[in-house]
TrEMBL record:
Assigned keywords, A-Z: Aminotransferase, Pyridoxal phosphate, Transferase
Record-given protein name: Putative transcriptional regulator, GntR family
Source species of the chain: Pseudobacteroides cellulosolvens ATCC 35603 = DSM 2933
GO molecular function: pyridoxal phosphate binding; transaminase activity
EC number(s) recorded for this UniProt protein: 2.6.1.57
Pfam family, one: Aminotran_1_2
Amino acid sequence: MPTDNEGMLTDELEKILESTENVKLIYVIPDFQNPTGRTWSIGRREMLVEAAMKYNVMIIEDNPYGELRFEGEALPSVKSFDKMGCVICLGTFSKIFCPGYRIGWVAGDENLISKYVLVKQGVDLQCNTIAQMEIAKYLELYSIDDHIAKIKQAYKSRRDIVVKTMEEEFPEGVTFTKPEGGLFAWVELPQDIDSRDVLVKCLEKNVAFVPGGSFFPNVNRYNTLRINFSNMPEDRIVEGIKLLAMVLREFICV
């Protein structure tokens, strides 16, 4: 689906919905999207719901990163524009509390949720009971909002240092996003460079990233890559970006 910096191009979406039979659902990550870190505008969110209602198509709004905003105003969810129960919103504790707790939640129309519960029971009965009890006890004893504020401060600092280092070190012809939140920055290389080849060289220097080609099932975009800035301390981030830049200069100067 074609996109720009404001999200999915809804006029292109309408063309597809109009010409394609049996579209089951539309899956979107409107806030700090994985892999690009981009965020949808309010207008795009509203137009998406209007198109879904017009063509009677469900929307899955996956929002694991929405609470990790570092700057700018929080935007209304896609679900907030839903007047017909066509949007199902997903969230998770794995990005705002602890990565090892793969516990999430679903918000949607009551009839849809009841069917979802039946399907889930047929798959795995229920989520990890101990993890749910531990999260519930944490929420009872502590403030999750205070915790989120703390990790946002850490992630913002790491976002700032990764962007600053890329600005200083990356060679001409390489572009990247500066996300307002979330965990990822998106890098685009010159068209003739395959990020998979870059990764092989980077791994020799103990630097890793996710090549971007696998995020595009229908087109060739192997000149892209995703950087996650959430895990490493700032000195390691600087070291890693400098080593990545060194490898990129080898490819671009060839």
